[in-house]
What does this fold into?
Amino acid sequence: MSINEQSRPIRPYHDTLVNLVLAGLFAAISYVVFVFLRVDINIGVTKTSFHAANTLVVLAPLLIAAPYGLLGPAIGLFLADMFSGYAHVAPETLILKIVMAAVCYYSFKALSRNTPTESTRHYLNATIAMIAGLVTNAILAPVSSYFYHTYLLGSATSPAKIFVKISAGVTWFNAVLSAILGAVIYVALYKALKHSHLKHFFH
It folds into this structure.
């Protein structure tokens, strides 16, 4: 190895290739988590599910530069819906997950101004940002689901209302589960990688 190669700096976290690879990884993990680690709840002719895939949606924006961190898990879950019996809501899923990730990303960016990455406040900022994204999804998803099922899919109003009520409770459960898992995984990853060259992935 030449002197020039030895002195070549490590690529920063916004490197396009690195971010594409990480986005693809998060998309794949999101797909696997939803397809194989969910519990379906049948509601008439449609269904919803308990799952922890939203954990990846709010983790990715904290580790991967935009727009890659916003799109990776969203695309993974869009594909998961397409191939696991939820194709009718796949477009809705894609939009909601991008919005969730964007809220998480910009919340963390705003909260982290002038905050040292070594401080406890850094972990708190990450947790708050993930919760902000998850709460946004938990609020928007039932509203979106009602209009989507009623006006785009042509479901009757009463069944649509029943579905929305049940799915809203499931969405909030998923949000709480994902917030807990997200906080634990983020802290674990940060502590594991903080002394390595990969630390620059943490904003």
